[in-house]
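Marked as duplicate of an earlier ticket. Keeping the data here for the record.
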Amino acid sequence: MNSNYNIIIVGGGAAGFFTAINIVEKNPKLKVAIIERGKTVLEKVRISGGGRCNVTHACFVPNDLVKFYPRGEKELRGPFHQFCSGDTIEWFERHGVELKIEEDGRMFPTSDNSQTIIDCFLSATQKLGIQVLTGQSVQSIFKAEDYWKVETNHETFACQKLIMTTGSNPKIWDMLTQVGHSLVSPVPSLFTFNIKDTRIKDLMGLSAFAKVKVKGSKLEAAGPLLITHWGMSGPGILRLSAWGARELFDKNYQFTLQVNWLNELTFEEALETLKELKHEHAKKFVSKKSPFELPNRLWESLVLASGIEGETKWADLSKQQLTNLANQLTNGEFQVNGKSTFKEEFVTAGGIDLKEINFKTMESKQHKNLFFAGEIVNIDAITGGFNFQNAWTSGFIVAQSITL
């Protein structure tokens, strides 16, 4: 059977829905369909932010916002001047969803429930007459003279304009390379590090603000570091994994991680502080209480790793022990052996080559009437609402540039 539409959007996720809604709000006469291979739509929205949906980030200056994108920084500058996080807040408010800012800048619906965002999208598509067709797995796409043909496992669709919002879908990437697009090969981004080390063995759940660095490279990041039963996680580690996605892939996820548990303090400054503590707390036990902003159990573990026994008093510390401790605190080396996916929020670095996209319209430079929105292109961000912001911005720009 042949189904004709003005516009077909392949991919029933955040970018697909946002694009569709914006198109029809601007051009109510257009016949638009979203086709999705799964039984349900908006699955990533559902699980994002622990089920609360981290809609965007409270960074309102385009030139600052682009700095959170390891891939896409240069390309997104123009788009963010058209539709930024402030516009996202306004858009959702206009559609009945109020957002709130958390301490770390992440923004969520005030309901703290991702279902709010899903309901907003579903009711908008219904109201606007956008068809949402599930269980439609695309088998091929074909460019005819003046229209696109999309074949699924159920039927054949024809449309004047085709918009791809399928995220990291290898099968769709393959189809697009067959019609002449280039792919930057996908590698994982946003993952945690597998580390077996006696210093952190029984400390799962503890967190500290630390600076982390990949030894022998320029890769570094800072942020809360969380000790888990398989190694290290938390925003600092995820940030490092995003910026280092390609380099760490090349290292096969085997490398030395340098951790400065005191963040900004240098080895020399830490040593100086420890010498002062030696005088001030002469009669107290070293391992009893952390003099820095570190969980006591972590402090205890680092003291032990520096060759300082549990009953040692500050006054009895040797020069070597002080040096060891300053070293453990500011430059602890941990062997990373593999990675783990970060929850279900799997993000990849890679996708359609950015050079082949016009960022004023999000249209393909290879094919007229073929557009992209969201993570299908080689853009990704660190965690914190930035990947969604890219979906909203690119979807909005597609909608602005669609004229039929």
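See parent ticket for discussion. The mean pLDDT is 96.
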